Please model this.
Amino acid sequence: MPRFILYTERDRERAILLLKGVDIKNPNIFELKRQRKSRTVSQNKLYWMWLSCIAEETGDTREAIHEFYKNTFLNFTVEYKAFELLFIRKKSTTELDTKEFTTYLECIRQHAAEWNVILPLPEERGFEEFYSKYSGYIG
Model:
């Protein structure tokens, strides 16, 4: 079955026609899920710059800071089934949508502020200086 995104009533009608035409003598899988935008490249860049800044301030590695924050603030989960058992695991940061990642970043920003580490947002004053200092640490 083709995969496509429903934007209009016409798209919905097309999907219904496709489903009506499916041979039900053989098993088929039908999946309908809401499309969500994954975290953006700019969110990811900001995240790694923030981790670099925190690492510099604390003396820890970016990877250690990354693991700490994932374990502390990553409360979004994924459910899946295997062998008729339901499993739940935390999402990876790469699986977060833009809204979830924004929430995650805000938790990090608040925690860093408790340690007197200021993490500016792109629209805030001082971000250009921050970017100049940490943009080479992205990735």
